Amino acid sequence: MRRLYVLLFWFTVAAASSLPAQANPVDSLAPGYWYEAPGTMMKDVAPLPYDSRVQNVIDAWSGGAFDTKRDRLIVWGGGHGDYWGNEVYVFDVNTLKWQRLNDPYWPAKDFGWGVSATVFPDGSPGSRHTYDGMVYLPVQDRLWESGGSIWRSGNGVHDTEEFDFNTLKWQQMADAPHASNGVATGYDPVTGHVFMFWCGWLTEYDPVANTWTTRGQDACISSLVAAVDPVNRKFVVIGRGKAYVYTISSSGTMSQQNLNAAGAGASVMMNANAPGLVYDPAIKKLVGWAGGTDVYTLDLSVSPPVWTRVPAAAGNTVTPTPPAPNGTYGRWQYIPSKNAFVVVNGVDQDVFFYKLPSSLPAPDLTPPVSTLPVVPAATLSLGVDKASVVSGGSVSLTWSGGNVSGCTASGGWSGSKGVSGSAVVGPLSANAVFTLTCSGGSGGVARSVAVA
User: Fold this and answer.
1) Predicted pLDDT of residue 269
2) Alpha carbon distance 150, 385 (integer Å)
């Protein structure tokens, strides 16, 4: 009988080994088509007991990067008053499965309001809104991240860190020159450096030397997205009514210029709320996504640069879910091994893939976007009824915003606020700085008041 069982086991294993490997539907995805990978919700691998706030790993101004060595979309986020967990998630495009690489720093869940840490005792960084502040470093084989809005306090940070995929540990790197919230970054494969834009500051990070260099300073705009065109040596920053381009140089000041691109896609991409933007080396163009089934290519080899709308194939029946309300940031990525794109818009939504058509449409020569209507700037006033207060006292704050769609309090107070209103905050135990940040307009606006 035992011999029969052994033979049956051998035949079962032999039969299984002779079966063809399961085909990956992304490999056979037709050009011009979208594909929804069923049963690919990130929340299925979230820590237990399940915390519904994990949705803010994506929803709360957070992005991603792409691990080209392992074909994985990397997602990390949370922060401010939205989610405490600092665990890292990856989506494997070969197995079409999510994985949580590590556990969150659990004590962060129980910290009292107002208590925050940029780095926890285990060496991991505090959860934060990551915006467009993450890139994958292929030479170092690490996830790189800088800046962001930290858990609980909402403050911007100088911290720069790298996540090692072999040890699953974080390493603190040199601090950025400026504490930042809504950062936009791009990796330059020519130099191996990272360019970062925040509130008008343009900085460059060298991962080998672990050093920062300030390359320029212009008007304060934040919460945009960026990408590098390594062939045409351009760094593009776009979104929320703004579109800038820098010519990459080896040293010195890199001057900010308006992109002034032609094409119907120019206004769509410029006015989108932190859209997806990534370089496609196969066509040597930037490719953007701002919702729906259309994508947009940006040709920087011509003057003026041209955005071209690329509609889905006539037979396409799949439409991706809408972008997350606060932006797509780095969750729209190019997959070199499959010549396709991947995007995810929520922890309780499936992952979507897209392939460009074999032949791209002719360029749309709509006049440059600089001739289109300008989005009005956001305005905000914030006042306090007293400049000082005794311990245990309170203050009354009033604010009013114009051309804004939502506000978030940080510092000495917290939570979502209307575009105008008043609030009594207290009791206070020490000096406090009250900050209000509002989105909308041509790039958002922030104001702060201090009480001694």
Assistant:
1) 95
2) 28
Residues of the chain with pLDDT under 70: 1-22, 110-116, 366-377, 441-444, 452
H or E element, residue 211: strand 211-217
Q: Which residues pair with 221 in a beta bridge?
A: none
Three-state DSSP at 236 gives: strand
Omega cis (within 30) before 368 = no
**Is the backbone peptide bond immediately before 427 cis, with ω within 30 degrees of 0?**
yes
Exposure on the CB side of residue 117, measured as CA atoms within 13 A:
18
In 3D, which of 77, 197, 155 has the Cα closest to residue 443?
A: 197
Q: How far apart are CA 98 and CA 75, in angstroms?
A: 10
Helices and strands: H and E segment counts in the chain: 3, 33
**Distance, CA of 216 to CA of 139 (rounded, Å):** 26
* Paired tokens of 230: 């390594």
CA distance 264 to 278: 19
- Distance set, CA 295 to CA 32, 77, 139 (Å): 10, 25, 30
Alpha helix ranges (H) inside 290-399: none
Q: SS3 for 88?
A: coil
**Which residue in the block uniquely carries the two structure tokens 């990978």?**
37
The residue type found at 60 is A
User: Beta-carbon neighbour count of residue 113 at 10 Å?
Assistant: 11
Q: Model pTM greater than 0.90?
A: no
Give the pLDDT score at 434: 81
Give the start-end residues of each E strand in 86-210: 89-92, 97-100, 128-129, 134-137, 142-146, 149-150, 160-164, 169-172, 184-188, 193-198, 201-206
Q: What region does 94 belong to: left with phi over 0, alpha with psi -120 to 50, or beta?
A: alpha
**Angle at alpha carbon of residue 382, lines to 224 and 429, rounded to 5°:** 105
Residues with Cβ within 8 Å of residue 336, at least 6 apart in sequence:
68, 281
For the purposes of burial, counting CB atoms within 10 Å of the CB of 92, is it exposed (0-12), middle (13-18) or buried (19 or more)?
middle
According to the model, what pLDDT value does residue 10 have? 40
* Residues whose CB is less than 8 angstroms from the CB of residue 193 and which lie 6 or more positions away in sequence, other chains included: 187, 204, 205, 206, 207
Q: Name the token pair of 435.
A: 């900050």
On whether the CB atoms of residues 230 and 193 are closer than 8 A, the answer is no
pLDDT at residue number 6 = 36
Tell me, what's the pLDDT at 367?
66
List b or e across 250-264, with b for residues whose CB sees 16 or more CB atoms inside 10 angstroms.
Answer: eeeebebeebbbbbe
